[in-house]
Amino acid sequence: MPVNALYRDDFYLSTCEAIVTAVHEDGGIELDQTCFYATSGGQPGDTGLLERADGTKIALGQTKHGPSKDVIIHVPLESEPRPVVGETLVLHVDWPRRYRLMRMHTACHLLSVVCSYPITGAAVGEEESRVDFDMIETIDKDEVTAKLMELVEQNHPVTLQWITDEELVANPDIVKSKNVRPPMGLGRVSLVCIGKNSSIDSQPCGGTHVSETQEVGRIHIAKIEKKGKENRRFRIRFGTPGDEA
């Protein structure tokens, strides 16, 4: 039975109860529902704890998808205790880490607004993220930083809208990514919408994001690298350029 991935509808949900539905030979745990984000689309999966009825805790090193997107596997660290099928657990996401990733992922979307070129790759990190663009133009990183911070400080709402897989196929132009497929296969696709009535941006994405751009905080472009004749890599970091020292 497909897992109920609660985070898809509530990015701020950091704890919930769940029942163990399977325990793999390598220790991986499947649950009937989860608030843990599974690695996908350049964003790392959540880490955290699974709490048992007796108060003992199982520390997780990663969360990943199984053979399909409707299977989510919670992978404990080595030597952690194993639950049994049918056991009820309380899930606790490492919230400070998740929230940093939410802020960073939203910042990547804002960068795609400032730099309106096809995206050839991306990776979201706790301290630094990167977005690769299909472009040959030279662009000033301080100018990009200023435009990013303008969008952050305008505090645009960030909302989620659902469309069907068929609607996405019928409207391919809304996909900015050149090489990465949008998160399809579940019958519906989430659009991350920035600004009132998507006035700033609307992009298919299965990651987690903050609810308003001001939550991103201070960010800057630390570096722009040339990665091939028609590829530029932008590195986003928290803080100001002066923090580089």
TrEMBL record:
Domain Alanyl-transfer RNA synthetases family profile, residue spans: 1-245
Entry keyword annotation includes Oxidoreductase: no
Needed co-factor(s): Zn(2+)
UniProt GO MF annotations: alanine-tRNA ligase activity; aminoacyl-tRNA deacylase activity; ATP binding; metal ion binding; nucleic acid binding
Keywords: Hydrolase, Metal-binding, Zinc
Subcellular location field: Cytoplasm
GO cellular component, one term: cytoplasm
GO BP terms in the entry: alanyl-tRNA aminoacylation
Protein name: Alanine--tRNA ligase
Organism for this UniProt entry: Rhizobium laguerreae
Organismal lineage: Bacteria, Pseudomonadati, Pseudomonadota, Alphaproteobacteria, Hyphomicrobiales
